[in-house]
Each structure stands twice: as C-alpha cells, then as structure tokens.
Design the sequence.
C-alpha cells in the first residue's frame, strides 16, 4: 500500500480489479462498492451504523458484481472506499463529490474541508479508480467492449417509496445498447423497469460519460433496488441480468426468464 497524506499502510488499495483477462465483452464497474474510510479520517466522525446505510455505499452491488463477473467471465473494477469519503461517480471538482449532507445525515467532517484536504482525497481514491478503468480500456482497444456500471438504490428515499425494481440510465454517447437492454428487461412482466429512473443520467454522473462517451463505447448504467440483492434473491437476479445483458448484446430477445 502506497502511503501518502491520506492513506496509511493499514488502509486498503482504493481499486479492486478481478478477472482482468476475462474474455467477455462486458467491462463491469462499481463506483460505490465499498465502505472503507481511511484510518486518518476517524470514521468521518459518524456513528458506525451510518455505514450500514445506502448513504455509505451501494448496498448489495459488490456481491452482485462478483457473481455477474463469474457468470459472464467478465473483467470487474470496483472502488473500495465509501462514497462519503469521495463519490467516484462525480466530477471531483463538484462540491457534492465530497458530501456534507446525505439523506438527512450531516457529515460534519466533510463540511469545511480545505482545498488541500479535497485534493488528497481526489489523489488517493478518485484518480486511481478512474486511472484503473482507463488502463483497462486502453488494453481493450482491439476488442469489443461494453461498459456496464452497476449501482443499487434504496427502496425508500426521503419517505418516498420507489416502485422500480431496476432502472436503466442512459443519455448521450452511444445509448443504443442501454435502450436494447431496457427493452429486454421489460419482457419480464413481474418487474417494473425504469427508463432513466429512479435517476436521470445527467451532469451529476461522471463515470459513464468520462469513459464511455469519450471513447464512443456502448454502455449501460444499471440501478437495482437493494431489497432484490439480498442473499436469498440475488442468484435469481444475477441469472436474469446476465441473460438480459447477453440478449441485448446479441439483439436477440427470447422473452424467457
């Protein structure tokens, strides 16, 4: 572990890369996979229970990604630190890349950061994660690649229930693959599939625009409701999602789930 102003020798590396040589065209990425906090930040002065909430990480997304990577034989890149330390799906220049408030929780340790403190977080966590994705994409320029960003969302936010089971986010660049995936998933009558729900892909999103749009890569940003990613339900979701990803890639829709 490289020691610097933020990370110490006991802290994990910010990026986890699995199956780098996987033959699948899918490159799976998880911006909010982990909930680690650098030791020097003293847990951001939050109660430990806050890190079991959706504000700290995308609950269930890491296990989902590990299973999908295995089923698809796909390369997987994940970020290990909590989004409360720095959100790797935000432009690092944005104020909300290091949130001072998240779903009613005040993160006082983030409220009055100096420019130097922000730079340390960007340098130690945000930059290495995106450099890792860039490096893998550079290695794959001679092969088909579909960038798939995996996220999860809380069933209730600010008291509002969210009916969607899965959302597919897309905007500029080459959104054709995301739209085909949306169509395939909607063949399942038991699932409510959101088109740019529960979030729109907009200026707050960083990872997909930065990597996929810039390279004219097909992509999809997938949001799965967290209550579908429990240990009891995850295997079914993984099998369904893997089939849908492949059907959308092949432009074939069997309709069987």
Sequence:
């Amino acid at each position: 572990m490289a020691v610097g102003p933020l990370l110490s020798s006991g802290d994990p590396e910010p990026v986890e890369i699995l199956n780098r040589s996987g033959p699948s065209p899918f490159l799976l990425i998880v911006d909010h996979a982990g909930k680690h906090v650098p030791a020097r930040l003293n847990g951001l002065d939050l109660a430990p229970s806050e890190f079991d909430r959706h504000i700290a990480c995308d609950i269930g997304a890491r296990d989902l990604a590990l299973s999908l990577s295995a089923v698809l034989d796909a390369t997987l890149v994940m970020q290990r630190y909590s989004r409360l330390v720095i959100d790797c799906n935000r432009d690092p220049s944005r104020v909300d890349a290091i949130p001072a408030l998240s779903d009613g929780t005040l993160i006082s340790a983030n409220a009055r950061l100096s420019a130097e403190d922000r730079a340390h977080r960007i340098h130690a966590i945000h930059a290495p994660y995106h450099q890792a994705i860039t490096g893998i994409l550079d290695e794959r320029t001679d092969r088909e690649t579909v960038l798939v960003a995996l996220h999860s969302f809380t069933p209730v936010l600010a008291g509002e229930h969210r009916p969607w089971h899965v959302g597919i986010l897309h905007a500029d660049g080459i959104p054709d693959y995301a739209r085909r995936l949306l169509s395939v998933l909607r063949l399942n009558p038991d699932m409510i599939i959101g088109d740019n729900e529960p979030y729109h892909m907009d200026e707050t999103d960083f990872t997909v625009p930065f990597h996929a749009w810039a390279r004219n890569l097909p992509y999809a940003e997938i949001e799965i409701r967290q209550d579908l990613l429990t240990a009891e339900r995850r295997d079914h979701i993984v099998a369904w999602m893997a089939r849908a990803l492949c059907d959308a890639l092949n432009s074939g829709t069997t309709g069987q789930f």
Q: What stands out?
A: The mean pLDDT is 94. Residues 9 and 83 are 21 Å apart (CA to CA).
